[in-house]
Amino acid sequence: MTISASSVIEEVCTAAGLDGRGAEPIRLAENQIWRLPATGSVVRLSPPDRQEAAAREVHVAQWLAENGVRAVIPLDIDQPVERAGRVATFWAEVPPHEHGTITDIALALRELHALTPPTFDIKALDPFVRVPERLAVAALSDEDRRWLLDLHADLAARWATEMPQGLSHRAIHGDAWPGNIVRVIGEGRLLMDFERFSFGPPEWDLASTAVRTRTTGAVNEAQYAKFCNQYGHDVTDWAGYDLLARARELRMATYAAQHAASDPRWKDQAQHRVNCLRGRCGSRPWKWTGIM
Question: Which CATH number does 99-277 carry?
């Protein structure tokens, strides 16, 4: 039997000693984010297999604060909480904010990558985490699914054997796009969403903006040049960039295909991304549009 979202929120909030009445959805995706107006906080609900990752997110946020990096603030309670088939973490509500600018992202990553990595285990970067699981439920033809599985196998093999030496591995955000490095209105930048935070090549974070320029067309070349100048490095000059970009493109395509299975609004965009990867839409940039 499926448990309603309101029942899940009631259970996890009761276990945490918080008032979950009047919860309002902020973002409903693989991880659900709900505002708790009675407490001025936010609850993040994740699938039941994410308890270790959820605990790591809380520790990362605390570590960032200790190092003077502004980030979302976990509530000072015993968490994560696991109830009703979900893993919950609780956070102070972020003030009114908007997507981060090119400058925000470049300077936030430069600040983050300069830190000595934490002493607790943040796990090594897994660039293909959950890609097979996404494909298992994706709204795609069997032929497209098989093609993407083959692409995944090829990229994973290349990642393990062909990655050239680059910048020294550091603590990285793992999903450094403008929705996760935001600008608080009237204040400054703030980091959020540490599910993919890990130890790995800084180029993985930098490739996010490069892909938004060279693959999706969301960032123009002048903006990208500014990003590189402000961070101090151009990842596209690195011999490993093509592999990073292909891995990110695969993640973006399978993310859309997964969500298209439960929301037909994203079906056309999901298929377009697959068509691009399969060479059906000409050369990059492909002008992908966001989902969710």
Answer: 3.90.1200.10
